[in-house]
Amino acid sequence: MHSSTADAANDAGSEGASPKAERLLHDKVYEDLMQLLGTPGFEPRARLPGETALAQRLGVSRPVLRQALARLREEGRITVRKGSGNFVTDALPQARPMSLSTLKNIGDIRAFLEFRCFVEGEAAARAALMRTADQMHHIRRCRERFEQALAEGSDAIEEDVAFHDAVAEACGNRFFGMTMTALAPQTRFSIGLSRSLAGRPQGERRAGVYREHTAVEEAIERQDSAAAREAMEAHLRGGIARLFGQDG
Ligand SMILES: [Zn+2]
Asked: What is the fold of 105-244?
């Protein structure tokens, strides 16, 4: 891959951003590309514009663009042909994930968190009845990794998402896990927003988040379906309260 002066200047653009800001930026670029796929010039089998042109069009640096392209390749939405660039694949999925831009305003973000509350409360209740020993072990490992990441000063967004995914995957109905995967960009966005508005959980609030996750885990462990639902709903309602205030 050649490197011109202009590219070097572009590449410098992403330096210094916090991991959280980078994560949000990567999701945004991925979503923007997803919105382009299937539109004129981006039909199945079309060749994508070169990286420089595409990066300019999306207003990002080439390293950020490359991350998003790598994700699209992993998902089979584009393929690379040696020497001739990236091509849109034939098999565009029927249902595209919602764009981040569908979280249009603060009301939408609230509605999304309430939706998570319904879906994940139900998932936790079912996980308490359906989980295998391996799935229980995975939930516990994810909870421990989340605590460790927070203790190390990380915003722990990925670890938080992984814990919630682990619960959804243990509920014996694969559509819960698929729904969580489809909504992962919105979930990351809303957790990131909460972290940047309310700050990283520290002190008493961090202990509170630990307790909330542990309560979910323990209820699933002892196969108490009602308690698992209650604990998950309390955890997600806590998130809504942290963003919108206790009554609002
Ligand atoms: Zn959580």
From this structure: Four Helix Bundle (Hemerythrin (Met), subunit A) (1.20.120)
